[in-house]
TrEMBL record:
Source species: Variovorax guangxiensis
InterPro entries: Asp/Glu/hydantoin_racemase, Asp/Glu_race, Asp/Glu_racemase_AS_1, Asp/Glu_racemase_AS_2, Glu_race
Pfam families per UniProt: Asp_Glu_race
Designated name of the protein: Glutamate racemase
Binding, substrate: D8, S9, Y40, G41, N73, T74, T187, H188
Family, per entry: Belongs to the aspartate/glutamate racemases family.
Length: 264
């Protein structure tokens, strides 16, 4: 049975993959981490477009994927419209920072968005903000270096950068003028939510879009008549990387308790 392809610049999309596997247990997945070319978020659109196209070509050619999840906010903002134009018959789901649910759940009306510089500078993000922010105060916090620290399992770097960016995202609380909701607008960040949460009260809400993306993937597969019916080999996961696949496997095991048949 053809797999669903999922890709990210590195290990971040594993946070989305976990939601996909929970929502779609009968599907096979192939996850591609473009580690040799990561991070995407501080490099500009042309680079991200070129890499996204190369990864999708690979997933189609080598794995005959039946649908694609771009498990990366940065690649979605830079390239998803081009990927859809390149492959009109391929169902494609992308990710964008969860501003809409954040605005709906915030009581103070003060929200911070942690994301890559590329995502926050994009026209797509500007449109998202114009459509959903309303009268809310939405503060962008570009988290330079955090993806690199996560990719490198750099615990000290993750701790220092989490403290720095959460200080920029606050002050937190439920009182007037305080931020009560933080959007995790990069798929790497849910992996370090616990570390980020050390610098905020327990009442702070973190928003990420893994679950709604998984539900949208189910809808798209169903409407394309490509949903697995539960017969045949199912639930398989293949991990691939343009870099060291052992790093991806270690990340999958460490953060998500996932194991898989990995190939380089
Ligand atoms: N995980 C990615 C995102 O959701 C991008 C990280 C990067 O390569 O900078 O934006």
């Amino acid at each position: 049975m053809s797999p669903v392809g999922v890709f990210d610049s590195g290990v971040g999309g594993l946070s989305v993959l976990a939601a996909l596997r929970a929502e779609l247990p009968h599907e096979n997945f192939v996850y591609f981490a473009d580690t040799a070319y990561a991070p995407y978020g501080e490099r500009g659109d042309a680079y991200v477009i070129e890499r996204s196209r190369a990864v999708v070509e690979h997933l189609l050619r080598e794995h005959g994927i039946k649908a694609l999840v771009v498990a990366c906010n940065t690649a979605t903002t830079a390239a998803i419209h081009l990927l859809r134009a390149d492959h009109p018959d391929l169902p494609i789901v992308g990710l964008e920072p969860g501003l809409k649910p954040a605005v709906a759940s915030s009581r103070t009306g003060h929200i911070s968005v942690l994301a890559t510089r590329g995502t926050l500078a994009s026209a797509k993000y500007a449109n998202l903000r114009a459509s959903f922010a309303g009268s809310a105060d939405v503060r962008p916090v570009p988290c330079d270096g955090l993806v690199k620290a996560i990719e490198g399992f750099d615990s000290a770097g993750i701790a220092a950068l989490s403290e720095r960016y959460m200080a920029e995202a606050g002050p937190f609380g439920d009182g007037p003028g305080e931020v009560d909701t933080v959007v995790l607008g990069c798929t790497h960040y849910p992996l370090v939510k616990e570390e980020l949460g050390k610098h905020a009260p327990a009442t702070l809400r973190f928003i990420d879009t893994g679950v709604p993306v998984a539900q949208q993937t189910r809808r798209l597969l169903a409407s394309a008549g490509r949903l697995a019916d539960g017969t045949g080999a199912a639930g398989n996961l293949l991990l691939q990387s343009s870099g060291d696949v052992a790093v991806l496997e270690a990340a999958a095991a460490r953060w998500l308790g996932l194991s898989a048949t990995a190939t380089a």
